[in-house]
Amino acid sequence: MRLDALVAWASKRLAGAGSPTPRLDAEVLLCHVLGVERTWLYTWGDRPATSYARARFEALVAARAAGHPVAYLTGVREFWGLALATSRHTLIPRPDTETLVEVLLELASEPSGRLLDLGTGTGAIALAFASERPGWEALGVDRVPEAVALAESNAGRLGIANARFLHSDWFTALAEERFALVAANPPYIDAKDPHLAQGDVRFEPSSALVAAEAGLADLRHLAERGMAHLSAGGWLVLEHGHDQAAAVRRLLEAYGYVAIASRRDLGGQERVTFG
Ligand code: GLN
């Protein structure tokens, strides 16, 4: 069978299985099997698939049809133009979180400084920021040791030398250290949210997604403890759910933050609040 016919077959199968992006999924999975870029596939789609490639592709399509996230099947996800290794121990980086990176870059007006990324996972936020601000030092922490190891290997593979990673449950390993920027994409979904029963989140660690107090418990903790880790004039920058901006603003006010503002993501939802 030709490669383009395989893509067409898989797109149909994945659409039937409820993938929101069936054709993209099919192309990404086939490129993963072949070790090529998507542009290669568009040029050489009339080539026949080897039976080995076809068998591997069909196995991946079956796993995707069963709901497994593409980023776990390929082991990689692009974030801020960086190819990040992903694993089942970490949240899959989302485009929404690029909004948080944009806010951090705007706030990083000095030529140098330190950024703290709490619950770094793959290292996405720390690495994207560090890649754009070579004069700064980014520190990513996570309470999951596998995440720390993954983030470190992402930094090494991408050659990003100004990002370091540390095992820490939020601020616990940080003593008195202060930062110009403290950022987090913490868990913020309510355990009863029906969103948790659909799509990729079913396969991601719930410790990266779900928080008590209707999703606000970790955001509250970060707002409460974050102030002591900010240098003078520093900023706390938090990602949150699309309907949590007002609640997060109230939390920041309650803990003494000023100049509070929110930013919308590409989908037009208020996604990041800072003060
Ligand atoms: N934005 C993600 C989602 O809704 C959740 C990320 C998070 O909880 N930090 O799938």
Automatic annotation (TrEMBL):
Its EC number is 2.1.1.297. CDD domains: AdoMet_MTases. S-adenosyl-L-methionine binds at G119, T120, G121, T122, G123, D142, W170, N185. It comes from the Bacteria. Substrate binds at N185, P186, P187, Y188. Methylates the class 1 translation termination release factors RF1/PrfA and RF2/PrfB on the glutamine residue of the universally conserved GGQ motif. Residues 101-193 form the Methyltransferase small domain. Gene3D superfamilies: DNA helicase RuvA subunit, C-terminal domain, Vaccinia Virus protein VP39. Belongs to the protein N5-glutamine methyltransferase family. PrmC subfamily. The gene is prmC. Keywords: Methyltransferase, S-adenosyl-L-methionine, Transferase. This is Release factor glutamine methyltransferase. The lineage of its organism: Bacteria, Pseudomonadati, Pseudomonadota, Gammaproteobacteria, Oceanospirillales. Residues 6-75 form the Release factor glutamine methyltransferase N-terminal domain. GO terms for molecular function: peptide chain release factor N(5)-glutamine methyltransferase activity. NCBIfam families: hemK_fam, RF_mod_PrmC. One of its GO terms (biological process) is methylation. Pfam families: MTS, PrmC_N. The keyword Ligase does not apply. It catalyses: L-glutaminyl-[peptide chain release factor] + S-adenosyl-L-methionine = N(5)-methyl-L-glutaminyl-[peptide chain release factor] + S-adenosyl-L-homocysteine + H(+). InterPro entries: DNA_methylase_N6_adenine_CS, HemK-like, N5-glutamine_MTase, PrmC_N, RF_methyltr_PrmC, SAM-dependent_MTases_sf, Small_mtfrase_dom.
